[in-house]
Amino acid sequence: MVPGMTLNCPQGWNRRSPGFALHRVHAAAGRRPGGCGPPAPGTKRGKGRMTTPVIDFHVHPIDYESYGQATLEWIRDLQGEANWERMQKYADPDAFCSLLAENGVDYAVVLAELSPAASGTCSNEYVAAFCAGREKLIPFCTVNPHLVPDGRTELRRLVQTHGFRGLKLYPTYNHFYPNAPLLYPLYAAAEELGLPVMLHTGSSVFRGSRLKYGDPLFLDDVAVDFPRLRILLVHGGRGVWYDRAFLLTRLHENVYLEIAGLPPPKLLTYFPELDRVADKVIFGSDWPGLLDVAGNIKRIRALPLAEEVKEKILGGNAARLLGIEEK
Ligand SMILES: [Zn+2]
């Protein structure tokens, strides 16, 4: 059982006392960051040549302020209750940075989520505090268009107040079509601010998600109407629309194929011509949905692709998107 959680809340939700998670991360933030600084300058791998950093573009904090009941049950089934208990130490950002280092990850994009009707809630404020002062951790905010009257103002506020470096949207969990007019002010703001925007596409195991909103084809409208907006097709149309995700990535200069949650040995089955979009494939793990990040990286390195392509997938492309310099 996770401290602070109850499994039989009448609303079917597991709520901590308000501000519980935020309090914990603020307490940790007062300490000197350990292992959270940038990779040592001049760090070299391989045969002494400068290499690109490894960037995990898709991690969630372990310490959601509330999980959907089904989400918590899924996670506990997947990890086992004892292991899930042990993993709670990664609510400390310094411990999490150490975990990244152990897995060979130089930087990680940490995602906020406001999906009360599906997977759960991890607020923008929590993610901002978790990443504050830690160069390895790159905070991405979220805007649930049903919860704010004006997405453009909200995004500007989040960036100015907390320094977010990108936006993650959850159409299947928040129940909106990605090309809905409601979203356009938000896209306009992201384009003006130069923020990459991640959108969940394809399937999800979480109850409350609605697959129809995850069709990548809706992003064609967005890419046409906002040609400078950098759009990441998260999970590459998982399970249903790999072909559409690939086609959109080929078709639009600023559409990227994000591969979190896809088993690396299957990548070339899902995307047989992956190397044709080599400059736009982005690695992510979806931790803690997947624990063995190092193993995932190893399996990508084992794919029958050119070494240069694998470097791009594991961090080169993401470094360009995020403005991170090569080591
Ligand atoms: Zn995820």
Structure, explained:
This protein is of the alpha/beta class. It has a single domain, classed as TIM Barrel, CATH 3.20.20.140. The protein has helices at residues 20-29, 69-79, 81-87, 93-102, 124-131, 151-162, 171-174, 184-193, 218-225, 242-251, 267-270, 293-301, 307-322; strands at 13-15, 55-59, 66-68, 107-111, 113-115, 120-122, 137-142, 167-169, 197-202, 231-238, 255-258, 281-282. It has an eight-stranded parallel sheet. Strands 1-3-6-5 form a four-stranded antiparallel sheet. Helix 1 runs parallel beside helix 5. The longest helix is centred in the C-terminal third of the chain and has 16 residues, at 307-322. It starts with 12 loop residues before the first strand and ends in a 5-residue tail after the last helix. Mean pLDDT is 87; it is low at 1-34 and 41-47. Residues 58, 60, 286 line the site of zinc ion (ZN).
What would the keywords be for this entry?
alpha/beta, 327 residues, binds zinc ion, 13 helices
Q: In a nutshell, what does this entry contain?
A:
By secondary structure, the protein is an alpha/beta fold. It has 13 helices and 12 strands. It has an 8-stranded parallel beta sheet with strand order 2-4-7-8-9-10-11-12.
Bound molecules: zinc ion
H/E order of the elements?
EHEEHHHEEEHEHEHHEHEHEHEHH
Helix share bin: 25-40%
Please state the CA-atom Rg, rounded to the nearest Å. Answer: 19 Å
- What CATH calls the topology is TIM Barrel
Basic shape: globular
Q: What is the C-level CATH assignment?
A: Alpha Beta
**SS element count, helices:** 13
Report the span from N to C terminus: 41 Å
Query: What's the average pLDDT?
Result: 87
Structural class: alpha/beta
Major sheet: arrangement of strands: 2-4-7-8-9-10-11-12
Unreliable segments of 5+ consecutive residues: 1-34, 41-47
Number of self-contained structural domains: 1
* Portion in beta strands: 15-25%
CATH homology superfamily name: Metal-dependent hydrolases
